[in-house]
Amino acid sequence: MNKPSPYRGITSSNSTTPKFKKLSILVGLLLGFIIFKFSTNWSMNTEERIITEALNNFYRLNPKSRGANPYDASVTADRMAKFFPYDESPRRIEKSIWQMWKVKSTDPDFPHKDLVNKWKNENPTYKYNLLTDDEILEFLKIHFKDTTPEVLKAFEMLPNKIIKSDFSRYLLIYLNGGVYADIDTDLQKPVDTWFDSDRNVGFVVAVEEDINVENWQHYMTRRIQFEQWTFKAKARHPILRKLIAKIVETTFQAKKNDKLQAYYKDFKGVDRCASVDIMEWTGPVVFTDTIYAHMNSMDNPTIVDIDQQRDIAGELYGPEVGEDEIISWKFFAGLRAPVMIDDVVIYPRASFREDKENNCGKYCYVHHQFGGSWKNNGKGEIKPGMEGYDGPDPTEIEELRQKEVSKRDFIDDDEDYEEPLYDKTVRLAKRCLHPYTPY
């Protein structure tokens, strides 16, 4: 039975009674106390507290989201596993190809039509899918709104097109399985001819870069980093589940800490310490960290090393490896052929970024043209030779890879030397507290 209302019996005719006056005084004192507390605590990051409480209350009170905690990746991952269980039966990766762009391929402004047609025409047994931004959002609503809405909410909170593009590719392959490829990738060999295609594997990716120099951090964020412009996976694979959950956590932490804006080293007017680095938020850093974390979580993994020889000359440079890192960057340094670690296949650098001028062997499958349309505040990448370019010389990088010498050998040690932009960014990043934390 409902408790009787304290206002019952009070009307306009007796509103001046002592009982009403006492109630009014109590209400006034309560409101005054609330206002006082509100005003005195505002400087103590009250906005952060209000946002946090509102989000927590949303998930606590929404029956379909009961048990959710978007600030904890492990909770989100467990919920995704419940609503989207992974099929561990032996099978091939789904025969689907997924690409995306902001407009349909029939639009006059659609780029790379010849490359898209190669993906479609040279894989006749694969279902080809090209989705626009609007179609992706509707697709995600169908699958996540009534299951794990924190995933959808995180996607909608993302402030930048490239971050949504990164997140979209992980979500599409997670839900459907198959091959993802950027539309500026040039297919060199049909997917069914790839090394992994007739094997029971669940996740396929390639090394992005391998620059064995002492100051490797000047060029890459991880010593052996994995690319995400082309990859394959079975639907609902644990790597993608963990990756998505980590991105959800980072997004909500960024919102809570008022850092919901994207940073990249060539973005103008963006405070590094009041934002989240794109590479960490949804890019190769979180992608790479999650893959390593998954491989190191395996119990006694079966490892198949096609070619145990590595292209390494001289000293091997890179960060220290922790005792719990059974599978680290060192295992993939100088990789010449695919490696299988249980159901994960790691291709060498050349596989998904073929050098057309040099014959890189039988494991070359895709050439990436590196359009970089999202860089430079959305104006596109400023490449070497273009006005405003401020980055490493790709010719120099290739020389370093071939000669395996330190970049310091090319720099005069004098007082006029200006510290590279990337090195400045690294030093600054160390002073910032970030919403992203690796696994």
UniProtKB/TrEMBL annotation:
Organism, scientific name: [Candida] arabinofermentans NRRL YB-2248
UniProt record, GO biological process: protein N-linked glycosylation
Superkingdom of the organism of origin: Eukaryota
N-terminal signal peptide: none
PANTHER family named in the record: INITIATION-SPECIFIC ALPHA-1,6-MANNOSYLTRANSFERASE (PTHR31834:SF1)
GO CC term (a single one): mannan polymerase complex
Molecular functions (GO terms): alpha-1,6-mannosyltransferase activity
Record InterPro entries: GlycoTrfase_DXD_sugar-bd_CS (IPR007577), Nucleotide-diphossugar_trans (IPR029044), Och1-like (IPR039367)
Name of the protein in its database record: Glycosyltransferase family 32 protein
Keywords from the named record: Membrane, Transferase, Transmembrane, Transmembrane helix
Keyword Transmembrane set for record: yes
Family affiliation: Belongs to the glycosyltransferase 32 family.
Flavoprotein among keywords: no
Membrane-spanning intervals of the chain: 20-39
